[in-house]
Amino acid sequence: MRCLVVVACVAALASLVVAEPLVLATGGRTDGEIVLPESTSDTMREWTEFLSRTLHEMTGADFPIVAARAHAADKPSIRMAVPLSGKA
């Protein structure tokens, strides 16, 4: 009986861990954009452009880069962040 309870508990926990897949683009289109912090370094900007190009090569979709102030809150986004050290 204990074994059955343990199996049931593990199954219940496993169902909580399963998440929906993250879909970045479908059919060469995306609704998302890459959001840069207001104050960012040239290095961060270069890596963001690299990410945008790489995602385009992988999916065929254009991932626009926008400043945080221009990002619409209802749009999906990939948010670039400045490391805690403040250097990027």
Short description:
This protein has 2 helices and 3 strands. With 88 residues, the protein is α/β, with parallel strands linked by helices.
Could you list some keywords that capture this structure?
88 residues; single chain; alpha/beta; disordered N terminus; three-stranded parallel β-sheet; 2 helices; 11% strand
Number of strands: 3
Number of helices: 2
Q: Compute the CA-based radius of gyration.
A: 19 Å
Q: Which structural class best describes the helix and strand composition?
A: alpha/beta
Q: How are the strands ordered across the major sheet?
A: 2-1-3
Backbone shape:
globular
Give the averaged pLDDT, no decimals: 79
Q: Distance N terminus to C terminus?
A: 56 Å
Q: Flag low-confidence runs.
A: 1-10
Strand content: 5-15%
What number of domains?
1
Please trace the helix and strand order, writing H or E for each element.
HEHEE
| Proportion in helices | 25-40%
Question: What's the main sheet like?
Answer: 3 strands, parallel
| Oligomerization | single chain
List the helices and strands and how they pair.
Blueprint: H1 2-17, E1 33-36, H2 42-59, E2 65-67, E3 77-79
Parallel strand pairs: 1-2, 1-3
